[in-house]
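Final report, closing paragraph on structural work. Over the funding period we assembled a curated collection of sequence-structure pairs, and we close with a single example.
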Amino acid sequence: MFIMSRLPLATMSCMGRRVKVMSLASKEFRLLVRTDHSDRTTNRTLAVTIPSPSLVNTSDNSKRLLLVPPPLNTPPVRPLTLAASLVSSLPSPLQPYLRLARLDKPIGSWLLFWPCGWSLCLATPAGQLPDLKLLAIFGVGAFVMRGAGCTINDMWDRDIDKAVERTRDRPITSGQVTMFDALVFLGGQLGLGLLILLELNWYSVLLGAASMGLVVTYPVMKRFTYYPQFVLGLAFNWGALLGWSALSGTCNWSVVLPLYAAGISWTMIYDTIYAHQDKYDDVIIGMKSTAIKFGDQTPVCLSCFATTMVSCLLYCGWTTGQTFPFYLSLLGVGGHLAHQIVTLDINNRDDCASKFVSNRWVGLGVFLGILAGTLVKEKEQEQVTEQVNLQDVVEGVARVVNMEEPS
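Its predicted structure, as stored:
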């Protein structure tokens, strides 16, 4: 008996003809080896095309492979998170829209916010806390714009999501929200995002508006390239540029570009892990991702991205004069990333999901390191040039002369 679990079977050969089949990635099948004593030339046994020949190895030509479904097992029920419980407690008509914006899964908002926080803390003067108002603006903005990005993604992928087990229950795909309603909802999200953006200086407003092209086109990239995660990194880490400009009115490119590169490398790590959850269905429906491209070499590739991320952050710290708390935090972050990569099981959806979510601690670790490193910096001595009053100089000289005159 041989067991084949979640193989990306795209075709089946039956009686010498190739026919298309529905997605089998979400089902488990059992392969039984049985001796066929029939001498009929039109044998009805299904011959399955197996992508990994090492799974089934038989040298007896008289044996055939039979595809037999195993007994159905009820999947374990995952407990609701706090955010999911909150969404479920709200009025039913609101819930599809809140799930469309992924309010029940706030991890994406955190991943979008952290590069903004990094940049803002790096731009903060030595010995000071970051501007709390700007932190709040970026926090709310990440919350709103991540929801808008999810709405755009689901509108693009409404047909694709039907073929993927993890996404077939999303509001648009399941019919809970119509395309027109989603478009109106998206208009409200983008309008609110614009109001938040207008709280920043004009340099930052124009810089932030320039990212919309990436936000809109990212969902399409998986149809054309194996590196949609790179495009997501370009969009998700735009805050690495905005944080500095929001405080300083311009960008110090020698700092923000390496910080941007670090964020992109980080996105390549966590979103490749995320993409491994759907790789079986993606192969069947023809979608592309780094999970499919890297395959079994995923740990090696992720190690390269982790090295790039930490190296770029080290350079940013050196450029901005960071202190020992920052470098200690990078040591912890590097250890966390190494643990993720070494223990990652790319064929276990639950493990991929938990590793993906754990990246919120990576972002928090870098943020706290920059914040603490900035606080313990020596305050730069500001040289204040006093304005010289000519009248005071004349009066001072006159007093000196009068004191020297003989009485």
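The longest strand covers residues 28-35. Strands lie at 2-5, 11-14, 17-20, 28-35, 47-48, 63-68. We thank the funder for supporting this effort.
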